[in-house]
Amino acid sequence: MAKKLRKSNQERQENKKNELNKIQELNEKIQQWDIKPNSSMTLQAKKFSDLPLSPKIIKGLSDNGFTKMTAIQQHSIPVSLQNWDILASAQTGSGKTLAFLIPILEKLYKMQWSEYDGLGALVISPTRELAIQTYEVLLKIGKQFNLAAGLVIGGKDLKFEMERIYKMNILVCTPGRLLQHMDQSTGFDVSNLQMLVLDEADRCLDMGFKKTLDAIISNLPNERQTLLFSATQSQSLDSLARLSLSDYKTVEDPTLRNIVSAIKDKDNKTTTPATLQQSYCTVQLPKKLDMLYSFMKTHLKAKMIVFLSSSKQVHFVYETLRKLQPGISLLHLHGRQKQTYRTDVLDKFSKAQHAVLFATDVVARGIDFPAVDWVVQVDCPEDVDTYIHRAGRSARNGKNGKNLLILTPSEEEGMLKRLNARNIEPKRLNIKESKMRSITNNLQSLLFQDPELKYLAQKAFISYVKSIYVQKDKEVFKFEELPSEDFAKSLGLPGAPKIKFKGMKSFEKAKELKNMSRQLLLLKNADENGEVNTKKDKQVKTKIDKMFERKNQTVLSEHYLNLTQPKTDKKGDDNDADSDDDFMTVKRRDHVLVEEDLPELLIPTSKRAQKKALSKKQILLNQGSSKKFVFDDEGNAKPAYEVLGEAEFAKDGDLETQLGKFIAKENELMKTADIDDKNIAKAKKLEKKRKRQEKERMLQEGYYNSDDAESEEEIRYVVGTGNLDDDMVSDDEDNKATRKKVKYSRSGKDSDAESDAGDNVIQIENPETLEDLESLTAKLLQG
């Protein structure tokens, strides 16, 4: 047994030695690689197997269908494997994710990284969706490696992440949640970090993460390899590169034009693939929803993403078009949704063959949706970079795709001028308004039936108008030319809601804080000692509380505001005078607590004690029972549940005596009730018997015929002499009362029935005038 163990240990050591030798060979090959642009070695490497990569990564790539390299992968991976810092830019959908995941896995594998070495690589993504997508790709291609990978994003269980984050070797995260773990997770150590990756770095800066990234980078070790990947480059990105990169190389792929026939701008920094068909159309603002609905109805077999400027618009358009049932699956995605729901939407849309996704710019960058046929930009993007990233959701990885930009007449000239400056020339599409289907009447009907939908329409109108107001490019976004009333009617509203505009600084601040996490906001508002008052944030707020805290409540009707806000006169006092405007107005009054109502020696000395003393439980303990009163005939109040004392109870005798009296009294009441029930039952039985006898008598005398079309309700009895009670009790026909029967005929022509009935039957036509009634009365008296 010992020999076998020794043999296995020897085999293990030999395998490890062979693996180290292979790693040494890979390092020598990669150092000999010519990383110059357009070098023969780089141009000849078309597949991943042509690069000096480990067999584990080659197997992980081939198992998932990754064999050929894209341009950015072909030029950036060899540079990264030589441990250079990289500032890379490439078109959207060019495979940047694999361009930095492969160097991460290769570097940690060559260093023989294990779970005991701590965090080795860090990937920072601007959005949760992009982080989830990167993490899923990492799990697919890294199955052969003995490394622990983790995903840290907002919306997940923070405590669950804290318990496991110190065991991770590779971490994919968003900036806000990463900084939160750096501040709060005690076991989280980044001192041994080997590689940092900033994916979509320009997007991180656009979303207001600049200070967050600066704080993160300041906590990381200086001796590390840093990779910055982006589709665009800006001055802020250059400043971030100078801060985080030490000795780096810029990878812009000069052969990109020949490989994918890309269209580049004059600065050679932003690209869009040639397989993307770009077009635009000009539509009046009130006709935008009609245009969108008509476009969807004519493309039911397509998979498209519809971009809108705000989450309120996304929510409203999704809810209204979902009720109109265009005939295609509808989904919506924006930043205000919960993370679990956003993940489900991404998964459903990725798997769907024909669907429409209404979304904000939260999915405009980095997200790789398979086989997107159309990208429809309903609202004009704020700049050309946003346009490029939106359009980049289609025509990815060399596939065909189409993009449609919908502009208003005021936006057309300025936006096309900026697109042409970047060598982007979309084709104009002429829309026939005669074939466009209008849904304005349908929206008005929906808003009339559903008040919540009307409220969404108001918020969508306000958010769109404010988004135009805060834009910096006033040559494209002309706020003064907005047709507010017509636009409101196109949403189904009776008129344009009132909007209170603040200063531009407040809007810019709100835009900056829009995507900031709550935890970062708390840290920003912390006092000098670093203490954060979270008591307010821990309070549970209902929907009603949030509604009353809204700053822009003028979107609601004035009648609703009258119900919630008390009216005051010019002096500020409540106006008690009756008027038409005060009808159904709730006037709130503060009720003063009287200390006499409180129990003795329990007068509260604090708010907490006061609340406890006034609780129902404490009142019951102090008083012994509730004070529910009933009123007698004279109006005197008496307790409904009166509890007697022991002495007062003993006056009527002991317990057994009073119990016997109570039982005897209840027995008498039950006997009386039993007699009444028997009398009622006997009366019902006699009545039933009387009806049966009357029916038999009518059959004998020929007055009743079951086949006759006339009903029994047309026969009326005139009671003569005799006692009705005797008829009900006695069965003898001699004692029955003498009755005269009057039979009314509708036709007046049934002479046979009159002759068979005898002298006691008077048959006439149905009386219609006063003379007919008088003659009928005379005949009855004579009979």
Automatic annotation (TrEMBL):
Segments of skewed composition (Acidic residues): 724-734
InterPro entries: DEAD/DEAH_box_helicase_dom (IPR011545), Helicase_ATP-bd (IPR014001), Helicase_C-like (IPR001650), P-loop_NTPase (IPR027417), RNA-helicase_DEAD-box_CS (IPR000629), RNA_helicase_DEAD_Q_motif (IPR014014), SPB4-like_CTE (IPR025313)
Main location class: nucleus
GO biological process: rRNA processing
Domain DEAD-box RNA helicase Q: 46-74
Domain notes: The Q motif is unique to and characteristic of the DEAD box family of RNA helicases and controls ATP binding and hydrolysis.
Family according to the record: Belongs to the DEAD box helicase family.
Protein name as annotated: ATP-dependent RNA helicase
Species: Hanseniaspora guilliermondii
